[in-house]
Design a protein that fits this description.
GO terms for molecular function: phosphatidylinositol-4,5-bisphosphate phospholipase C activity. By secondary structure, the protein is α/β, with parallel strands linked by helices. It is built from eleven helices and eleven strands. The longest helix has 14 residues, at about 100-115. The chain starts with 10 loop residues before the first helix and ends with a strand.
């Protein structure tokens, strides 16, 4: 069965001394803001409430249920417990039944996109809580097909688009980097990573990020890379390049996204992480010293934190911040 800057004395001082992300470019040349647990009703009554605030990233927790409901479910715990509507129109996204499966949540995103086709690029971070299981029909290819049938392949910036004419993704980002935010207007970037339950499952030794990576390698070898719509993200901050061991060798050139604790990244030194070439999500940004409120900080404090982490290579700074003024902010 598969299981998905040093601390400164005051905020005012931080605003004064932290270099801008423009001086030390990130993967896309900017740093945007993501919302942790975007799908919960505690975060917002409806998923569209989050989307309308124009965050740089939303996060969805997914459970693979191949025993009972036979679908991908969305919730912090097994089962569907979320703010996604069963609406079929944008106007209905704040009504109807909530607690939809992953297909329903992705259709909410598509309805919002169709109403806002020129939106800023948005990362969709998917934590596969108990991983994929291709043997039961819930593998990465099936996940990619679901993305194509809901959000739409044309609306997703894919691994094939990043690779272009290069032999692999790492060569592509080293040569040309990720596209700028303006070049990604109207696009979603889907990153998929290991889940907490999966990592604690002693019977699962094939982690989600490895499975997504192997999907890319196989699809590329067979000439079908265009059908692969999601990127693997290595979860867990590492001071050095984490693409070693199982994540090294043939897999390394296909892993170009990273996710981990902002506090850890901030402790690694002042240079942009891994040269600023990669898509890097820095989570729990409020905890970086000096800590600020995790839900409703002053906008100036949160925006200063975004600039601080952008200077060390964050593409996305993530927290539980919910205000539109913060979520729609980008540092450049």
């Amino acid at each position: 069965m598969k299981r998905f800057l040093a601390a400164v004395a005051t905020t005012a001082l931080m605003i004064t001394v932290v270099p801008s992300a423009q001086a030390t470019p990130t993967a896309t040349g900017t740093t945007a803001v993501g919302l942790h647990n975007s799908y919960t009703q505690e975060t917002a009554p409806w998923l569209v409430d989050v989307l309308d605030r124009n965050p740089g990233m939303i996060e969805i927790d997914v459970w693979t249920n191949f025993f009972f409901t036979n679908d991908f479910q969305v919730g912090h715990d097994p089962g569907n417990a979320n703010n996604c509507s069963n609406a079929t129109t944008y106007e209905g996204l704040r009504s109807g039944n909530r607690n939809q499966n992953l297909a329903g949540c992705l259709r909410n995103i598509r309805l919002w996109h169709d109403r806002n086709p020129n939106h800023a690029p948005m990362v969709v971070k998917v934590e596969m809580k108990n991983g994929f299981d291709g043997r039961a029909g819930f593998g990465v290819p099936q996940f990619d097909t679901l993305l194509a049938n809901t959000i739409g392949a044309a609306n997703i910036f894919s691994p094939a688009a990043l690779k272009g004419g290069h032999p692999d993704l790492d060569t592509a980002v080293q040569a040309s980097g990720w596209p700028s935010r303006s070049a990604l207007t109207g696009k979603f970037v889907v990153i998929v990573e290991n889940g907490t339950f999966e990592l604690g499952n002693p019977f699962d030794n094939y982690d989600t990020d490895l499975e997504v990576t192997d999907r890319l390698i196989a699809a590329n070898s067979s000439g079908a890379l265009a059908s692969a719509l999601s990127f693997p993200a290595i979860n867990g901050a590492s001071a050095t390049d984490p693409r070693t061991g199982d994540r090294g060798g043939a897999r390394k050139p296909w892993m170009v996204a990273f996710d981990g604790s902002a506090t850890s990244y901030a402790g690694f030194g002042g240079a942009p992480y891994l040269g600023g070439k990669y898509l890097v999500v820095m989570t729990d940004a409020h905890n970086v010293a000096p800590a600020i409120d995790s839900r409703n900080p002053a906008a100036a404090d949160a925006q200063a934190r975004v600039r601080q982490l952008g200077a060390i290579g964050a593409t996305i700074v993530s927290s539980d911040w919910t205000s539109a003024e913060i979520l729609s902010y980008t540092a450049s």
